[in-house]
Predict the structure of Alpha/beta-hydrolase.
Amino acid sequence: MKLTLFAILSVATSVFGQQGGTGPYKAWYKTDPGLPNHTIYLPVPDQHPASMPVLLWGNGACSANGLDFQKFLTNVASQGVIVIANGRPGGQGSSNNQWMHDALRWVRQNAGKTWPYERVDASRVAAAGMSCGGVEAYEMRNSGVVGIGIFNSGLLDGNNRARIMSEVKAPIFYFMGGPSDIAYQNAEQDYRLVPGNVASWKGNLNVGHGGTYQDNEGGKFGWAAVNWVKWVLRQDVSGRAFFTEGGAQRDGWQVESKRLDLIR
Ligand SMILES: *[C@@H]1O[C@H](CO)[C@@H](O)[C@H](O)[C@H]1NC(C)=O
């Protein structure tokens, strides 16, 4: 009874977005009063898989609008992932490095306990972001994340590049826009400094810095991200072929990789 009342109150005080995504679980977004500066993308309540890993997401320009990547993130969530984007829906201004840490703390408090997060697995959290948001994702490298996704981004701080890269422990994937991407040179330098005992993949699709996030379902960047979360986050090997058997190249990505055998 108490739980039902809580559930009704929680619905009444949350905002819900449009349903979509190409994955097996229809996804949408919602807000949560416990995390007011974020937008939560997840499968609709009756379609939760047995276990849902978590993706923390930082927007381009470190924007505080959690809907900036709505199509792309809805598609990712429809794979059975809960995505927590920096910024509430329609939020203004900028996020900072603390916001992903706030989201992670909230995940650890609510996963497995609070409706509708009973099936959230706080032991499987990845961090990713686009452009400025990618730098926010790097900041999570020492927080126990099981994957890092760098989208059209790279470290801006050349003085600390070697030290920061030496601290990367989780598989790290780069989704870049080719030589005309303003972050291209930084990502190339970062990639070369990934420690030898860490799995890494780098793809360049020649579309420039903006990627394809605003296309339906996030376009080719959306499809690449779907395969990434399937394999690295959900441990579903059906995502692996995109990276290891030419799927990305057939989609136009120029790829390099190291030690992908370390990913289970
Ligand atoms: C949300 O963001 C605003 C603006 O940055 C900040 O003042 C406020 O403290 C944040 N709220 C929470 C709960 O973190």
About this structure: The chain has one domain: 28-262. The domain at 28-262 is CATH 3.40.50.1820 (Rossmann fold).
